[in-house]
């Protein structure tokens, strides 16, 4: 009985099937956690969603920025990006069931000392506060006014957390933090431009997980965070954070991390023909 945490799949269904075979994954015995970005840019996002829905009893997937993008495109709030590979989902006869399932995924998942999310946390957020705020966004996505949030989701402001934020600005900050964060400015505000790894940290910026006095790393209730989103970071295993986006879409690998013994498993992935670094 094992729990495997898998990094960003992004529609790479063949790689997912290869990884599951390598793990000898058994739905009656094992559980699969996914760090978000189930869909987009890969060749078969539709098959990934269908597999996840069919295995809902053994899959825990949090939402990533590409998943939220799919929901927004499906509702007509934003046009598809030229690199999107979402047409098969949008034209599928079971699209409504798939999109409803996706919209009801959590933004954050916690199990004991482990916390899984897609991108990062605000430095002010403790683990408990992060759970509470993720719950606010989940309620908005699952409630009767979910389209209102998606219609106003896009935007980079506000960039700094305040408990006084309200309404759509509050929800947008929570979404941006959980699904888009990589680097922070010295004042702790969100930075969205830079995507390079730790060997090329831009001057004046700090990776969110290294920000001084990060609340989620402090105190007796600190957690070990599993996340994806940052393919240029690659596989990183530390006592406080574990990064699992190993760039399957870009010719890297799809990685699974087993919680019980902290062992990693990988399958190599072919580079998508029209993948380009700028669209990561």
Please give a quick description of this structure:
With 280 residues, the protein is α/β, with parallel strands linked by helices.
Which key terms come to mind for this protein?
280 residues, alpha/beta, Purple Acid Phosphatase, chain A, domain 2, five-stranded mixed beta sheet, 16% strand
* Termini separation: 34 Å
Instruction: State the domain count.
Output: 1
> Stretches where pLDDT falls below 50 for ≥5 residues?
none
CATH architecture descriptor text? 4-Layer Sandwich
Q: Can you tell me the CATH superfamily?
A: Metallo-dependent phosphatases
Report the order of strands and helices: EHEHEHHHEEHHHEEEEEEEE
Rg of Cα set: 18 Å
Q: Compute the average pLDDT.
A: 96
Helical percent range?
25-40%
Question: What topology emerges from the helices and strands here?
Answer:
Blueprint (H helix, E strand, L loop, with lengths): L2 E4 L6 H11 L7 E4 L10 H10 L4 E3 L3 H10 L12 H4 L4 H9 L4 E4 L2 E4 L9 H16 L3 H6 L15 H14 L2 E2 L5 E2 L14 E2 L16 E4 L8 E2 L3 E3 L9 E6 L4 E6 L12
Parallel strand pairs: 1-2, 2-3, 5-9, 9-11
Antiparallel strand pairs: 1-12, 4-5, 6-7, 6-8, 10-11, 12-13
Task: Give an account of the 3D structure.
It is a single chain. The chain is an alpha/beta fold and 280 residues long. It has one domain: Purple Acid Phosphatase, chain A, domain 2 (4-Layer Sandwich). It is 29% helix and 16% strand. It has 8 helices and 13 strands. The strands form 3 sheets. A 5-stranded mixed β-sheet has the order 3-2-1-12-13, covered by helices on one side. The model has no long low-confidence stretch (mean pLDDT 96).
């Amino acid at each position: 009985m094992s729990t495997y945490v898998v990094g960003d799949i992004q529609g790479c269904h063949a790689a997912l099937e290869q990884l599951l075979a390598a793990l000898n994954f058994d739905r009656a015995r094992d559980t699969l956690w996914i760090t978000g970005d189930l869909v987009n840019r890969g060749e078969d996002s539709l098959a990934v969603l269908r597999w996840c829905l069919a295995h809902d009893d053994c899959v825990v997937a949090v939402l990533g920025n590409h998943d939220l993008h799919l929901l927004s495109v499906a509702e007509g709030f934003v046009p598809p990006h030229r690199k999107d590979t979402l047409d098969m989902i949008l034209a599928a006869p079971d699209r409504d069931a798939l999109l409803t399932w996706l919209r009801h995924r959590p933004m954050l998942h916690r199990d004991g000392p482990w916390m899984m999310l897609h991108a990062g946390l605000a430095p002010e957020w403790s683990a408990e506060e992060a759970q509470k705020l993720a719950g606010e966004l989940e309620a908005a996505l699952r409630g009767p006014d979910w389209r209102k949030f998606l219609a106003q989701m896009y935007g980079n402001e506000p960039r700094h957390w305040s408990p006084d934020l309200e309404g759509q600005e509050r929800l947008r900050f929570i979404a941006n933090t959980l699904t888009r964060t990589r680097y922070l400015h010295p004042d702790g505000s969100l930075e969205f431009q830079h995507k390079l790894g730790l060997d090329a940290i831009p001057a004046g910026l700090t990776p969110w997980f290294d920000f001084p006095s990060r609340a989620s790393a402090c105190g007796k209730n600190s957690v070990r965070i599993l996340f994806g989103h940052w393919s240029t970071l690659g596989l990183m295993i530390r006592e406080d954070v574990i990064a699992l986006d190993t760039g399957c879409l870009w010719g890297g690998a799809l990685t699974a991390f087993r919680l019980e013994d902290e062992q990693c498993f990988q399958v190599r992935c072919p580079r998508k023909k029209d993948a380009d670094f700028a669209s990561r």
